[in-house]
Specification:
Blueprint lengths: L36 H7 L1 E5 L8 H10 L4 E3 L9 E3 L2 E3 L2 E3 L5 E4 L3 H16 L8 H4 L3 E9 L2 E8 L9 E8 L10 H8 L3 H7 L1 E10 L4 E5 L1 H5 L5 H9 L8 H18 L5 E3 L3 E7 H10 L16 H9 L27 H16 L2 H20 L9 E6 L4 E3 H4 L9 H19 L3
Antiparallel strand pairs: 1-11, 2-5, 3-4, 5-6, 6-8, 7-8, 9-10, 9-13, 10-11, 12-15, 13-14
Helix pairs in contact: 9-15, 11-13, 12-13
C-alpha cells in the first residue's frame, strides 16, 4: 500500500552502534505527590480556553498555514510528539480535508522504515498471532510526501480517530519502564532514562500529553510533557481522573468501554511473542458531549460555569428559557418597550422572548457571554437528542495502540534465544488496567 520505496532494515547487532542514514522516501507528485491534586494539575496546565478559541499566536498560525499545502490543515487534537521543522517553525501532524486522514510526520528515515514495515506487515499477514493487532491499531492508509513550505516532508497516513467526535478528550499513554530501543545510542538511552522517571519506575507507563473538555467548567484544558514529567504513582491516578471528568461523576459506561479494549490488548500482550514494543503508546479518546448526555440522563448535576448546577435535561432546559415570565414582565423590558409575550392564540413568542432575555442579561446582569454559551450548549444537546446523533451503533470511545517506529520483531533481538513475551509493555498495561479497574469500583 505504501507508495514509497524503503530500505530493508539492518539486522540487530548486539554491540552499540550509531543509526545509519537511509534515503527512505522517494519524492512523490503530491508534493512528587502533592496535598492538592487540583492545584498540582493547574500548575502545569498549558491551555484553559473556551472550546472554540485558541491560544496560538495569530501571526505564527497565519505563517504556518501559509506553508501547508492546499487541502490540508493542522491537526487540532494532537497531544504529544510527532513534529517537524520548516525553518524555525515547528509543525505537528496534518489532516487531509478530502478524506479526513491524519498525516503523521514519519521522522528519521530509519524510524520511518521501521514503522511502515510494521504497518505493511499488518496489512498482509495471515499469522493468527498478529491478526488481532488489526483491531488494536488505527487504520493504515499508506504514505505520502508533501511540500510544506520549501521542504519535502514524508508522512504516514492513518484514520483520524477524532472524526465525528464533537468534543474529543484525548490522552497519550506511553507504555513500559524502558522507552529506548536496542539500537539507541548511549546519549539517547541516558536521555530516555531521565524522562518521566517517577511515573515509569512505579507504574510502568507515563503520560506525555492529554486534553479534555472539562464538563464542570465548560472549558477546554490541555496538558503537555512538562505536566507528565512531574507525575508519580499518586498523581498519575489524578491525571486519569482529570481526563475522565471524574469531578462530574465517574461514568461506568465510559470506563467499561475503555476497560473492554484494554483487557483485549492485555490478553494479547500476555501471550504474543512476535514483537517487542519500545516507546509505543496507547491512545484513548472519548466524546465529552456524549459523556455529558449520559451524566444528565442519570440525574447527575454537573457544575456550570456560573457555579450553579444543571439537573434538568437539555430539552427541558431550553424550553424553560423560551417561557416568558408572566409574573414580572417589567423585568424583561429592554429599552422601554412593552414585551408582547403571547400571540393571538396565547402561545409564547419564543424568538422575541429569548431576545429580551439576552438583552436583559447584557445590560443588567453583565453575564451575556455566559448565558449565550449555556444556551448554545443546551441547544446543541437538544439537537443531538432530537436527531439521534448518538445512536447505539455510533462509536464515541476509542482505545488504540499507536507509535511503532521503535517496534522490533522478536527475531531481531532474540540473539538466537527462544522468543519471549514483551515483559516491558506487559508491565505497563497491567498497571494501567489495574488503575481503571479501581476507578470502575468507584462508579455509582
Amino acid at each position: 500500500m505504501s507508495h514509497l520505496k524503503l530500505p530493508s532494515l539492518p539486522p540487530y547487532q548486539k554491540q552499540q552502534q550509531q543509526r545509519k542514514s537511509y534515503v527512505g522516501f522517494a519524492r512523490s507528485t503530491s508534493v512528587q505527590s502533592t496535598s492538592s491534586a487540583s492545584n498540582f494539575a493547574t500548575s502545569f496546565q498549558l491551555i484553559v480556553t473556551a472550546p472554540t478559541s485558541s491560544s496560538t499566536n495569530t501571526n505564527t498560525k497565519m505563517s504556518t498555514d501559509q506553508k501547508i499545502p492546499v487541502g490540508f490543515v493542522t491537526m487540532d487534537h494532537q497531544v504529544a510528539g510527532h513534529t517537524f521543522h520548516v525553518g524555525t517553525e515547528e509543525i505537528g501532524m496534518l489532516k487531509s480535508v478530502d478524506d479526513g486522514s491524519v498525516l503523521k510526520p514519519a521522522g528519521s528515515p530509519m524510524c520511518a522504515a521501521r514503522e511502515i514495515k510494521f504497518y505493511e506487515q499488518l496489512l498482509t499477514t495471515t499469522d493468527k498471532d498478529i491478526l488481532p493487532l488489526r483491531d488494536f491499531t488505527a487504520e493504515y492508509r499508506g504514505t505520502q510526501t508533501l511540500a510544506v513550505g520549501s521542504k519535502a516532508v514524508n508522512f504516514i497516513k492513518l484514520r483520524d480517530l477524532t472524526h465525528d467526535i464533537a468534543e474529543p478528550c484525548v490522552i497519550d499513554i506511553k507504555m513500559g519502564r524502558r522507552t529506548w530501543d536496542p539500537l539507541a545510542t548511549e546519549q539517547k538511552r541516558e536521555a530516555e532514562e531521565n524522562k518521566y522517571v517517577d511515573c515509569k519506575n512505579t507504574v510502568g507507563f507515563c503520560i506525555p500529553g492529554l486534553q479534555t473538555h472539562h464538563i464542570a467548567s465548560g472549558t477546554y484544558k490541555k496538558y503537555g510533557k512538562e505536566y507528565g514529567k512531574k507525575l508519580n504513582q499518586n498523581t498519575v491516578k489524578e491525571a486519569l481522573r482529570l481526563f475522565l471528568n471524574a469531578d462530574s461523576g465517574l461514568c461506568r459506561q465510559l470506563i467499561m468501554q475503555i476497560l473492554t479494549n484494554l483487557w483485549a490488548i492485555q490478553k494479547w500482550i500476555r501471550t504474543q511473542k512476535v514483537f517487542q514494543f519500545y516507546s509505543s503508546s496507547i491512545l484513548i479518546i472519548y466524546d465529552a458531549r456524549k459523556l455529558r448526555q449520559i451524566l444528565e440522563s442519570k440525574g447527575r448535576t454537573p457544575t456550570t460555569p456560573d457555579g450553579g448546577s444543571r439537573s434538568e435535561s437539555p430539552i427541558n432546559s431550553l424550553q424553560n428559557q423560551l417561557k416568558p415570565n408572566r409574573g414580572s414582565s417589567n423585568s424583561l423590558r429592554g429599552s422601554g418597550e412593552s414585551l408582547n409575550a403571547l400571540d393571538a392564540s396565547g402561545s409564547p413568542i419564543a424568538p422575541k422572548t429569548v431576545y429580551r432575555k439576552i438583552q436583559r442579561s447584557h445590560s443588567s446582569m453583565n453575564n451575556y457571554e455566559q448565558e449565550m454559551k449555556k444556551m448554545k450548549d443546551n441547544y446543541a444537546l437538544m439537537l443531538d437528542n432530537l436527531v439521534g446523533v448518538y445512536d447505539s451503533n455510533k462509536e464515541w470511545v476509542h482505545v488504540k495502540m499507536i507509535d511503532f517506529a521503535h517496534t522490533f520483531n522478536n527475531n531481531e533481538v532474540s540473539d538466537g534465544q527462544p522468543a519471549s513475551i514483551d515483559k516491558n509493555y506487559l508491565d505497563g498495561i497491567e498497571h494501567l488496567v489495574e488503575i481503571f479497574e479501581e476507578l470502575l469500583k468507584q462508579c455509582d
